[in-house]
């Protein structure tokens, strides 16, 4: 995979590989499932060869895509929440009484990075209730606790250190971590959700890699949920130029040799040239939509609803919509 192209999505890493190579990625299994409104792509990296080709750890990456989320259609949002819950249950494979720690990563003062804290604000936290009212343990509620640890710049502490301290004290059985991601395409912002059983690197969405939150580091399973909220400007410009060249080639009635030469240019060279031109003016630029406030509000509700109904056996989406949001 081209390591210069900024993307946190496994489906995009697969796309990039296929653009430069013939056939599927070696050591990677792919399964697609679609309904009228929602497409689910399950990418499983099963070998070291696949890990190297994709630039991602071995594990399962599930991407849920729904273009109609742009229309703020409540029925589609509810459908995505149910799909998210179904995929979460399949990945978790834990006892119904297992203690969950949900971690909302990101900076609540920066809207594109506020996804994690916004999800936590809509979450059903129940650990304290079940401790105070043990009779509720048979009601289908799972013990859930949550934290928004902030970012290094405001706390002075690595997120992984904070989480390790919490694990040592309360001993959760598994972690669900939510964070903002980066995509290579604007049309995936607000319309895509990725779930992975490989953990997460806080700050990866803006290229600010911190210590990983993963089973290898923390000693317990970590499910990561992410939504692309930003696009690297160089990546977006690179892809836009490729699409423009392809369109001009289709529309050209004469010799397309000039466009073919442009299209065959090495992606690394084009990307480096674009970022070299941009950097003196704007530095490392990440682009986000103008309606990012509404995007974060909608997507955080969708994710919180999905987590709530996946963790609590007898809680339905109707219950969550009535009492939580």
TrEMBL record:
GO molecular function per UniProt: metalloendopeptidase activity
EC number: 3.4.24.78
Propeptide: 1-8
Recorded coiled-coil stretches: none
Sequence similarity: Belongs to the peptidase A25 family.
Subunit architecture: Homotetramer.
Catalytic reaction list: Endopeptidase action with P4 Glu or Asp, P1 preferably Glu > Asp, P1' hydrophobic and P2' Ala
UniProt protein name: Germination protease
GO biological process, one term: spore germination
Function comment: Initiates the rapid degradation of small, acid-soluble proteins during spore germination.
Origin superkingdom: Bacteria
Gene3D superfamilies: HybD-like
Post-translational modification summary for this protein: Autoproteolytically processed. The inactive tetrameric zymogen termed p46 autoprocesses to a smaller form termed p41, which is active only during spore germination.
SUPFAM superfamilies reported in the protein's UniProt record: HybD-like (SSF53163)
Keywords for the protein's UniProt record, in alphabetical order: Hydrolase, Protease, Zymogen
